[in-house]
Amino acid sequence: MRYPIRNIVLFSTVFTALALGTASAQEVTGKSTVTPRPVSASLSSIEAERARLFEQMLADPSNLDVAFRYAALSSEAGDLEAAISTLERMLIYAPGLPRLQLELGVLYFRLSAYDMARTYFNAALAAPAVPEEVRTKIDTYIAAIDARSSDSQFSGSFSTGIRWQSNATAATDARSIETTFFPDPLVLNDSARGDGDFNAYAALNLRYSYDLASQGDKIEATFQSYGTLQAEHTEINTGYAELQVGPRFNLERFGLDDTSLAVYGIAGGYYIDSDSYLYSGGVGAALITDLSITTRLVFGNEYRREAFQDSFDRPTASDRTGDRYRSSLTLQHFLSGNVALWASLLADRRLADVSYLSYQEFGLNVGLSIDMDSPIATQADPWTLGFALGYANRNYDSPDPTYSLDTEQEDNEAYAELSLLVPFKENWEFQTVLGYRNVNSNYDIYSYDNMSASLGVVRRF
């Protein structure tokens, strides 16, 4: 006995994870973004120390040690303008000091002011007897400036690993369910109930941007793909891919500073166990505005036409064919130089050919990431701890006649996720994720919970 909804739930889980991951990774990039740095103390203690050092600078403006400490704390707190102005004042008392020029170059780089960053890096390299490690660091930054200053930019990530799930099939643990066909509850056999499994997974995310010669406009393309191979339940081996391409317009031409509008086309699809399951295509638009140097707001809308494909194992999949509309409002904020927060409001409307498969969904997702000093003394790169929570409510348009003649299906879904990224070489990280998901439905057949744990590696480029 097979229930196609299991696969729908699994795909929704994968798609949501990819969509949120992409939004948080892609949309926080831009000229307002500061690269987080490890902070060894709380923000309140840093601010108190900054205030104390500021008073010392006023009393003794030529004290370079005090000024440099103030600039370092300002950088850690995410106040890059204060750090830059302090270091530039220090150059009055110590003109041509390579240490100051290097740090100014790094700060301007973090603000995406690449011309100014290059100026300071070149000045530092012109000093006599530059240490080799400093020269290597500057060469790395200059190479990054060359890449980011070109008309075209390319970036991405690839991750792979293994995952265990307590309920890989996303099926109910109930022994029996109520149906409209039988007077007594229908007893489920083991094959129709939740079962744990391991899988191997791989995900690829690519982003390409080309600057147009017109007021800051761009052509952007993103590609996402994801696939799993199950150890036992090979009937739910899955694959997913989606491409989005379109222009992004700089709205400063209309007086809207730090604001852009992206418009894009969408094409994608899923397969299950080597069978085509879904083809989709549509359009989307996103309004992105930087409220401050540390805060970004993104309002997005997407439309997809979804064509589900019947197969031997899923002969009624095409009943789900129809239109899907999705809206989101996402706020991203750097609380300090090493703590990033995000929150998303989501609304989803699916109109399927069969009314009891049509639904509307509203959800809220929140999360944070913290860059922490590595516990390994010789490791300079920080470890990143992430935490996310989410809730969604789904209400279907009409009763499913298999389970009720007068009550529509309603689902309440919640999840929690804890992740840790540990760098082990340049552009490589170990990634581990612990998660829990619970779906509570008034149709018992669709209620389930699932614990998961994964271990993998991530390559960024």
From TrEMBL:
SUPFAM superfamilies: TPR-like. The lineage of its organism: Bacteria, Pseudomonadati, Pseudomonadota, Alphaproteobacteria, Hyphomicrobiales. Keywords: Signal. It holds the Pfam family SlipAM. The keyword Ribonucleoprotein does not apply. It comes from the Bacteria. This is Tetratricopeptide (TPR) repeat protein. Residues 273-461 form the Surface lipoprotein assembly modifier C-terminal domain. Residues 1-25 form the signal peptide.
